[in-house]
Amino acid sequence: MAYNGAGIMAAHNIEPDSHEPHQPRSIIDRALAGQLLSSDEAAALIEADDLGLLLEAASALRDRVKGRDITYSPKVFLPVTNLCRDRCTYCTFRKDPWDPGAWTMMPHEIIDWSRRGRALGCTEALMCLGDKPEVAFKQYRETLKSLGVRTTIEYVHRACELALTEGLLPHTNAGLMSLEEMRMLRPVNASMGLMLEDISTRLRKRGGPHQWAPDKEPVRRMRMLEEAGQLRIPFTTGILLGIGETPAERAQSLIAIRDVHRRYGHIQEVIIQNFRAKPEIPMANAPEPSEIEMARAIATARLVLGGEMNIQAPPNLSPNDVELFLRAGINDWGGISPLTRDYVNPEAPWPHVAQLADRCARAGFRLRERLPVYQEYINDVWIDPDLLPAVQRLADRL
Ligand code: SF4
Predict the structure, then answer these.
(1) Which residue from 191, 161, 192 is spatially nearest to 175, judged by alpha carbons?
(2) How far apart are CA 371 and CA 191, in angstroms?
(3) What is the pLDDT of residue 351?
């Protein structure tokens, strides 16, 4: 289906800019020809006046390589623990042990939720949890001891084994991990993830959203992305829009992700996620990024990262923008759960898959399931040999 740039621009009150300098066009031409863009070029794209041109190019690049299939992963969200040593000022997920709602899942809960999720057709067990709570909380260290482990990551390993036994494929996002911790989890994970969020060190400074989040130091997060590549782990990362970064920093973050992927080939997908304000957070009054900012970032990600990259946007955080994001060049909606809510954004319900499929179809796309590891990584280079048969069995059923 041809891209209707005029339609998008009318729907979102975007006027074409007849005074557009030629530079974005030449940058786009270079991207479409497969050439590497610089940070400055990426920044010029993300701020280009002619949004229609940007979306058209990103859409064309996606169509050329990925076609018109849009994927999602049916998942169970397992918040193994919501305790966290960090305090990001946009987070409602984290708790202290004494807070109402503080929760560490017990093994029987992991088994029960995994079993119910599998019965509903899920294939992914998303292990999503706070960062290093044992460093901060004695009470939690006692919990781990009673469970027979020393560290959160050891407990996640156990949780992954339980989910595997129930027929799910784990994808762990446990915050910042060392190389040894990732090595421990690799045999029981189809893939792993860590949002870069943003490459800007400013966000760690006094008054910034990451002032009290030592695990959000960009250099440490880039190191983990690097080490995941060394370990040949299919890896998910992405950027978080609206936490105080500039458009140029968004572009620089995409370039950093592209560069680590060029070294190892392990970045299986890049998420473009928008900050959502909530009344109970310190950033309650911070503006959310607009749908146009999201579309700009998605389209720039497509052009920076190329047609082969899987580009994802969470549909529950932008329920009115499905068509716009498709036109900006995504090819994936990420995990959608028929069982569990989005514990990171509990106010944002998942879309019904049938309704999402219908909207995709009306926009000229076919929605289909995928596993938590993309097809191109299902081989013995990227998956532990003991895990590979289980992955292949599920892949054969898709
Ligand atoms: S966003 Fe993650 S690292 Fe930051 S406080 Fe929340 S759970 Fe912890």
Answers:
(1) 192
(2) 10
(3) 82
pLDDT of residue 1: 32
Q: Is 209 in the pocket of ligand 1 (CB under 6 A)?
A: no
Residue pair 352/171 in contact (Cβ under 8 Å)? The answer is: no
Query: Which residue CA neighbors atom 2 of ligand 1 most closely?
Result: 130
Q: Does domain 64-396 fall into CATH 3.20.20.70?
A: yes
**CA 116, CA 93: separation in Å to the nearest integer?**
23
77, 81, 83, 131: which to mutate for ligand 1, most atoms within 8 A of CB?
131
Q: What is the pLDDT at residue 246?
A: 96
Whole-model pTM over 0.70: yes
For residue 88 and ligand 1, the question of a CB distance below 6 A is answered with yes
**Is residue 125 within 8 Å of residue 165, measured between CB atoms?**
no
User: How many residues comprise the chain?
Assistant: 398
Closest CA to 163 of 136, 188, 132: 188
**Domain boundaries, given as residue ranges, for the chain:** 64-396
Q: Which residues pair with 125 in a beta bridge?
A: 76, 170
Helix, strand, coil abundance in the chain, percent, nearest 5: 45, 15, 40
Q: Is the CB of 213 under 6 A from ligand 1?
A: yes
Is residue 197 within 6 Å of ligand 1 at its C-beta?
no
Helices (H), the chain: 5-11, 23-32, 39-46, 51-66, 107-119, 133-136, 138-146, 152-165, 179-185, 218-230, 247-264, 291-305, 322-328, 353-362, 388-396
pLDDT class of 344 with cuts at 50, 70, 90? confident
Q: Are 170 and 214 in contact (CB under 8 A)?
A: no
User: Is 87 a pocket residue for ligand 1 (Cβ < 6 Å)?
Assistant: yes
**Torsion angle defined by CA atoms of residues 140, 146, 147 and 152, in that order, rounded to the nearest 10 degrees:** 20
Among the residue ranges 1-5, 18-22, 340-344, the one predicted with the least confidence is: 1-5
> Which amino acid is located at 244 in the chain?
G
| Cβ 129 under 6 angstroms from ligand 1 | no
User: How far apart are the CA of 47 and the centre of ligand 1, in A?
Assistant: 29
Quick: pLDDT tens for 75-111.
Answer: 999 999 999 999 999 999 999 999 999 999 999 999 9
